[in-house]
Amino acid sequence: MEGALGLMRRMPPKHTETALSALLSLLPHHSSDLLSQVDQPLQILHDVDSGKEFILCEYNRDADSYRSPWSNKYHPPLEDAPYQTSELRNLEIEANDIFAIYRDQYYEGGISSVYMWEDDNEGFVACFLIKKDGSKTGHGRRGYLEEGAWDAIHVIEVGPEEEGTAHYCLTSTIMLSLTTDDESSGTFSLSGSIRRQMNMNLPVAEGHLCNMGKMIEEMEGKLRNSLDQVYFGKTREMVCTLRPPSEVVMRLPDS
């Protein structure tokens, strides 16, 4: 199991689904552990009742049906489907509206979904998802990428309130993949994923959504910087080392 998880951590996001399917066939007795611990590129589905798209993941799935955060209905319909309490559902509705604004301001489009459910510790868990298709035919508005995807998964475990404060445990995963096929840049492919965790005890006077929003905003800033330094920075360093730009190449004088 450790070897399988180690392999999936090193697998490019665009090959995750194929590799996970192969591992599930090899290790069927570990299927539940693999599906719960391996993050896959996000998929979307259209909600006919609300006219909006929503993101599919393990956190809104029951059997083979997925619950829409907009209409609160399962697609396809599911008998005896589980639902959260009305209080948590109202918080989920508010979170989806606020997170859609955050998505537009930071990502200039894309699709977002927020799901919440109760846990066994008298608290609740919230999952914030963003998918941005940066290709020419997708949500990208710059037109430079042949293919490109940014998948962000933020899972926050919120503990019960004690003396006006609550414990928040945020686990964030970013999956990035991009491909260019342009005359100026040539053919180039880059993909990878990064995961980080953050724990904080915060007062709940301003509400859970305010606290969770601040944590997600801070975490995404750190992850973007890490991706820029690790993936783009190291790639740029290797390319410039192997193929130095002509203007910085030092020429020795003729002997």
Quick overview of this protein structure:
This protein is α+β, with helices and mostly antiparallel strands.
Structure description:
The protein is built from five helices and ten strands; from the N terminus they run H-H-H-E-E-E-E-E-H-E-E-E-E-E-H. With 255 residues, it is an alpha+beta fold. The strands form three sheets. Strands 6-7-8-9-10 form a five-stranded antiparallel sheet. Strands 3-4-5 form a three-stranded antiparallel sheet, with no helix packed on it. A two-stranded antiparallel sheet has the order 1-2. A hairpin with a 2-residue loop joins strand 3 (61-62) and strand 4.
Specify the helix fraction band.
Answer: 25-40%
3D shape: globular
Specify the structural class.
Answer: alpha+beta
Average pLDDT number: 83
Strand segment tally: 10
Oligomer: single chain
Strand order of the largest sheet: 6-7-8-9-10
- β-strand percent reads 25-35%
Number of helical runs? Answer: 5
Biggest β-sheet description: 5 strands, antiparallel
Give start-end ranges of low-pLDDT stretches: 248-252
